[in-house]
Amino acid sequence: MKICDLCEAQSMKARNGRPHEFLIKVDEPRIFKGSKPRGFEEQDYECLTCKSKFTHSTDKNGLAWTLWRA
Ligand SMILES: [Zn+2]
User: What angle do CA 25, 32, 22 make, to 5 degrees?
Assistant: First the structure.
């Protein structure tokens, strides 16, 4: 399935970029308490328009917005 324009833009967003208006949260955030000074969180989102799935991570070493293609 083709992803919508909002999701295309979302995949380019930086760590502090907000989810677009049709992205809804899926499940609870996952909390990682690693050995680093601070842990990080991951939150899954799904688009109501095109059903694309994203994971948003606050991990400094990873991508902010990861798009999972169906
Ligand atoms: Zn979408």
Answer: 15
**What is the 34 CA–ligand 1 centroid distance (Å)?**
32
The total of structural domains in the chain comes to: 1
Residue 3: predicted pLDDT: 92
Ligand 1 center to 8 CA (angstroms): 7
pLDDT band at 2; cut points 50, 70, 90? confident
Range of the domain at 25: 5-68
Please, what is the average pLDDT of the chain?
89
Tell me how far the alpha carbon of residue 9 lies from the centroid of ligand 1, in angstroms.
Answer: 9
